[in-house]
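Blackboard transcription, Thursday session:
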Amino acid sequence: GQQLNQSPQSMFIQEGEDVSMNCTSSSIFNTWLWYKQEPGEGPVLLIALYKAGELTSNGRLTAQFGITRKDSFLNISASIPSDVGIYFCAGRNTGNQFYFGTGTSLTVIP
Amino acid sequence: NAGVMQNPRHLVRRRGQEARLRCSPMKGHSHVYWYRQLPEEGLKFMVYLQKENIIDESGMPKERFSAEFPKEGPSILRIQQVVRGDSAANFCPSQWGENQPQHFGDGTRLSIL
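(Written on the board underneath:)
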């Protein structure tokens, strides 16, 4: 099945730095979602975006639904050690099918 | 306010045995998806079900795998005659309705000896 192009694949950053990751697709989506997964657990929903151009925040996290509807980005400001994990993007199409990115592994160095 | 409940959390089977994975969606959710995740990899779609109906099974292997979501009770993913390559974390996020996000449980980790 289709998978989204998510980058970067991994990031190693110092505590306090900002983080940016993005997802691109060749297809248009109606919804973009961002999840975080920690070892041994399931993905947890962070942010849901429903309209092109929408910019939504959840604490230190900010995500945007690209104008073309083919991309989305997630920013994390002032990273802290508990931000460590794998972040996945997901897009939903008109057929209610979901496609997931390959994940961005984030390591925060105290 | 329970989330998606999957059991067992860990399942160990020998090659050739059957594996049954159960999934109770969030209360009020009538859409269930099954995904498989191999170590260090992303989520691979298998099947999308609504109550008593398979909506999309394009990601499900044609042989040995089946899924159901009966009117009463949990959704079941059944894998017959398991092989080593079936070792993976299996997730079944649920969805209240279309245009709503999927919500995940902690999955079932299947290990094949």
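Lecturer's comment: Chain B touches chain A at residues 4, 31, 33, 35, 41-45, 48, 55-56, 58-59, 91, 93, 95, 98-99, 101-107 (CB under 8 Å).
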